[in-house]
Amino acid sequence: MQNLQMHFTAREGVVKAVEDVSFSVAPGQIMGLVGESGSGKSMTAYSIMGLIDAPGKIVAGKILLKDQDLRALSPEAMRRIRGNRIAMIFQDPMMTLNPVLRIDTQMMEAVLAHQDVGKATARAMARDALVRVGIASPDERLLAYPHQFSGGMRQRVAIAIALLNKPDLIICDEPTTALDVTIQGQILYEMQKLCRESGTALIWITHDLSVIAGLADAVCVMYAGKIVESGSVQEVLEQPQHPYTHGLIASSPSRNLPGLPLRQIPGMTPSLLNLPSGCAFRTRCERATAVCENTPPLSIDGARTLRCFHPISAATEVTHD
């Protein structure tokens, strides 16, 4: 993705939901996209999938899938790619599953829509996909309806559907948020294993840094529609340079001493209709000075990128102070 901009036009003005976002994900790589609600994570995902409807519009940038610009495709060509070469797993599995159709019907339709195979082959592929995500008694489960599954099982089915056509890229929009910790851990392990085995690239959207720490290879931190810091998971989480990344990590419960109030980033995410001039984070930042009223340039150091006039030194540690 190169310099993506996605805006909504409203009566009050233009909402810059995604502004100058660039990143790349290699085959078999897992990239985390993190930030507070309203930071632009999901809108970035919907832009990749071609699911932006009016009044939203991609106004600039390229979305490249193996050198093919998805923005240049017709709606029909994009439909052939969506669910086939790129797939998305939503936070609510019922956004994927039709409540009135059996699981086998839905999974076979996903295969037959993109591959020239018979129903018997499609059914066998559906069964194999259920096995891959750890669902026991797959033949019995194929005959069930979504309401007969628990939340964790429904999410596994949604993941199985995303995997059916062996896509080049899967986007996961917080798919484990509503699940208990045990089921979440199982699904994270399975997704990581499947990506390694199949070579599928994965973008995992979340606000939970602990998930990213154990799952992803790289991470992009978004704030107010922009990526403010990116790099390898180890670099960014162990030595955050942007004050916003530092604040996210410091506010994690595991970083706070027992019995003391949780640390938090002061203030609220600004309205995308009325962003402050320059750095959007400056009104909440302890390190902000007058220079932050200007737009910080993007600094690139190998695979590490940063947008900040006053980065935290690499020697600075995230402490409980």
UniProtKB/TrEMBL annotation:
Organism, as annotated: Herminiimonas arsenicoxydans
UniProt-listed PANTHER family: DIPEPTIDE TRANSPORT ATP-BINDING PROTEIN DPPD (PTHR43297:SF2), OLIGOPEPTIDE TRANSPORT ATP-BINDING PROTEIN APPD (PTHR43297)
Name of protein: Dipeptide transport ATP-binding protein DppD
Main location: membrane
Compartment(s): Cell inner membrane
Keyword Transport assigned: yes
Family: Belongs to the ABC transporter superfamily.
Keywords: ATP-binding, Cell membrane, Membrane, Nucleotide-binding, Transport
UniProt membrane topology term: Peripheral membrane protein
Gene Ontology terms describing biological process: peptide transport; transmembrane transport
SUPFAM superfamilies: P-loop containing nucleoside triphosphate hydrolases
Listed InterPro entries: AAA+_ATPase, ABC_Ni/Peptide_Import, ABC_transporter-like_ATP-bd, ABC_transporter-like_CS, Oligopep_ABC_C, P-loop_NTPase
PROSITE patterns: ABC_TRANSPORTER_1, ABC_TRANSPORTER_2
Top-level taxon in the UniProt lineage: Bacteria
GO molecular function annotation: ATP binding; ATP hydrolysis activity
GO CC aspect terms: plasma membrane
Start and end residues of each ABC transporter domain: 1-249
